[in-house]
Amino acid sequence: MPLIPSATKKKALTRPLGVVEGFYGKAWSWQQRIDFADFLLRSNLNTFVYAPKSDPFLRKRWQEDWPRAEAVELAAVARHYADRNLSWGMGLSPYLLYQRYGAAEKRALRAKVARLEAFGAGLLGLLFDDMPGNVDALAERQLEIISDVLAWSRWQRVIVCPTYYSLDPVLQKHFGTMPENYWETLGQMLPQTVDVFWTGAQVCSRYISVQHLKEIAALLQRKPVLWDNYPVNDGAAMVDFLHMAPLSGRPPEIANYTSGHLCNPMNQALLSRYPLGGLAALYRGHAATLSELYSKPLARLLERDLNQFQLQGRAVLESSVRQQMIAEYTACDDIAAAEVVAWLRGEYAFDPNCLTG
To answer: Fewer CB within 10 Å, N- or C-terminus of the chain?
Structure first.
């Protein structure tokens, strides 16, 4: 395997802290993505990575360009973040590319990388997650793709998501047995300027310990960037819950053992802001309260119902109780309340392509 060229030196970069829109199901709107920039600024966070699983032009149809209207929206969002000195990233998942990577595929990938650069994104997520991985020399095939991308482009930061991005056995259940020495090979061959995503001991980790991060850093030969699957609620067991409690189970010391921390939010963009306050508190020392984020009537209702939404969920609510809640939240003069109402009505359907939640 030839030496892989390095990306921009990491010492010149800021640790990415923020969100990766990487969930299945109903994606955020363009306006919601634009509006989220102000929340990041107020929270002293710095990064948004656009990588929704529902965007086919980043995943199964990655070789195609976006329709003009969508491309215009993407460019506008990227400019909005750049104008505010926030890092805007894009996550490319070239589906099963490592199974066949010949001359034609290389040309298509080079063209796609150039297209992503044209949007002005400074961060590239090269994502091999949620794809079959039980193929010979998986690491070596992916390293060849990574090497080409680095040679063709000058991204400020490249973060790779391995096919196996957690110790969780659910990944091998769904995507096949992990090849021997997969992580060790990636860790040895990737240049130190390239980061690696990691979700913790589980795909959706309730707790992430310093000891675990030390062990993973030794395995990957670098501190990982956490792809934190909280407060995401796209899985079959999670769509009936709103994860409204602030992020927890991550001791402050983990800041010394990570190269970044990006949370995968809920399908509900506005409601995600309160639980993401835990990320801001972890690294920046301040989290906005419910009353700072939402109108007083909505904040009071959410304070009342937070445990119900977080721990018991929608399915156990009797029809009469659910209808009463719908009426109460509908009466709130707050657009975030509409997300609660839609969730109570079951409008956030589970995407069966989501296999790991």
So the answer is: N
> Would you call 36 helix, strand, or coil by DSSP?
helix
Spatial contact of 221 and 188, defined as CB atoms under 8 Å apart: yes
Residue 168 and residue 201 in contact, taking contact as beta carbons nearer than 8 Å: yes
SS3 333: coil
Give the whole-angstrom CA distance, residue 122 versus residue 115.
13
As a whole number of angstroms, the distance between CA 140 and CA 131 comes to: 16
For 201-228, how does the pLDDT look when each residue is reduced to its tens digit (9 = 90+)? 999 999 999 999 999 999 999 999 999 9
Residue 297 contacts residue 333 (beta carbons within 8 Å): yes
Is the pLDDT at 1 greater than 60, yes or no?
no
How far apart CA 140 and CA 294 sit, in angstroms, is 49
Q: In terms of Cα–Cα distance, which of 201, 202, 203, 194 is closest to 159?
A: 194
6 pLDDT above the threshold of 60: no
Q: Which two tokens stand for residue 50?
A: 């656009």
CA separation for the pair 134, 192 (Å, rounded): 26
Write the pLDDT tens digit of every residue in 106-118: 999 999 999 999 9
Mean pLDDT of 148-156: 93
DSSP 3-state percent helix, strand, coil across the chain (nearest 5): 45, 10, 45
